[in-house]
């Protein structure tokens, strides 16, 4: 798999976004998610799906999670590996078809601003694939640009690669259909740096499907 859009801008991206988070809310949301994962630790690895430059992967590792970063862009991964040589990064995409976990399960998944790049028709299958690898109680956090229009999933003019905005309820429904129950969500409003509202949605693998 490839991600030519991100390959082309990786160096630029790295210069423009040298830190994991653009807002204090994002930092706290990821911290709250990590705390939730650590509250009831499960066997297995935490996957940072679409990890990009690895900054969030490193933040999660620093918070005590055993995390692997996964990304389809070799250029983004190359920078991630240079930035964080002590961490593990795998070339794969959200389908996780090439990710060898060495027999370990998936304890949690973080997918920030990466599922937005999947055609919406691919998302149910991807979420079901994660659910199949995760034990009951395991947590996912999905973040992306969103919309206030109820029911809407619509393509938007992302600067790097084709992308879609999901209304938070639609995202929650897709997670629910794959076997995850929403735990909480945050929405940030647009500002000078962000054209769209952004959602972070945390859900837990159901105990009974
Ligand atoms: C906006 S960056 C987000 C990076 C990081 N997750 C963060 O929070 O800063 C989006 C990343 O998603 C990756 N991506 C694009 N398509 C993907 C796919 N199908 N599966 C997984 N990741 C994908 C891109 O290569 C890119 O590194």
TrEMBL record:
Keywords: Methyltransferase, Transferase. It holds the Pfam family Methyltransf_25. It comes from the Bacteria. InterPro entries: Methyltransf_25 (IPR041698), SAM-dependent_MTases_sf (IPR029063). Residues 46-137 form the Methyltransferase domain. One of its GO terms (biological process) is methylation. Gene3D superfamilies: Vaccinia Virus protein VP39. The keyword Transferase applies. Signal peptide: none annotated. One of its GO terms (molecular function) is methyltransferase activity. This is Class I SAM-dependent methyltransferase. It comes from Rhodococcus spongiicola. The lineage of its organism: Bacteria, Bacillati, Actinomycetota, Actinomycetes, Mycobacteriales.
